[in-house]
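quick one before i forget lol
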Amino acid sequence: KKFWEVASQYRVFVTFNGRGFDVPFLMVRSAVYGIRPTKNLMAGRYLYQQHADAIHVDLLDQLSFQGAMRRKGSLHLWSRAFGIKSPKSEGITGDDVSLLFKKKRFLDIERYNVGDLRATKELYLKWETYMNV
């Protein structure tokens, strides 16, 4: 069966560099606050090693063939390569979020995050359709 046939029966957690930052950060912060995660999203770097109840597709891992490519690229680079609108196209980058937060420009942060989510979703669909063999 293709991955999407199996994954459609379960929840799939899709990230871009989630294994390198987001998930470890969330797991450590959870531990700091005494919260035990219910799913281990770091188990099995390769998709076939993962449990069906906690599938984590890190697009950076997938697109760089688990680091086999010398240059991995950013979400901005991969979005542009696949003709997807980059979250940076509105002039805000992840580096700007802290300053925007201090200035209470929450709608700008929201727009940036929504752009990031849309780009990640579109990139996932491209990977799923053309590269997930």
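fyi The chain has a mean pLDDT of 86.
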